[in-house]
Specification:
Elements (H helix, E strand, L loop, with lengths): L1 E7 H10 L11 E6 L11 H16 L4 E7 L3 H5 L4 H4 L10 E4 L5 E3 L6 H8 L4
Organism: Spodoptera litura (Asian cotton leafworm)
Pfam family, one: TXD17-like_Trx
Family: Belongs to the thioredoxin family.
């Protein structure tokens, strides 16, 4: 039920979101998870991302909803720390910290250590009435 996509870098992210149809009836919600690039060990260089990832993965495995979950690698530490990093400056993302989870085309988001809290993930994924 959950479709997971992985994107690497800003260019792949740009191409993907350009094709999301906003507010289409019966369209699957898109949730975007921004995280630091993975090291050869398979873990991100970002400590908060390493903490959040297993919680988010476990939550997605239990989720019984039709959603598209997009994992976006924002790059290495140097790329992320650059004040001109496009993920920081893009008006659609306005990232200040990673990890960040955004309900695309909505206002709901979790930032930093919030991403590792199941109760907050529940609130993010609740259906809008």
């Amino acid at each position: 039920m959950v479709t997971i996509l992985e994107l690497h870098g800003y260019e792949e992210f740009q191409k993907y979101v350009a094709n999301i149809e906003p507010n289409q009836p019966n369209s699957r919600p898109v949730v975007v998870y921004f995280s630091g690039e993975k090291l050869p060990s398979g873990e991100s260089w970002c400590i908060d991302c390493v903490e959040a990832e297993p919680v988010v993965k476990a939550y997605l495995n239990e989720l019984k909803k039709e959603i598209t979950f997009v994992y976006v690698d924002v790059g290495n530490r140097e790329t992320w720390k650059d004040k001109a990093c496009p993920f920081r400056t893009d008006s659609r993302t306005k990232l200040m910290v990673i990890p960040t989870i955004i309900l695309w085309n909505g206002v709901r988001r979790l930032e930093g250590s919030q991403c590792a809290k199941r109760d907050l993930l529940n609130m993010l994924f609740e259906d809008e009435d």
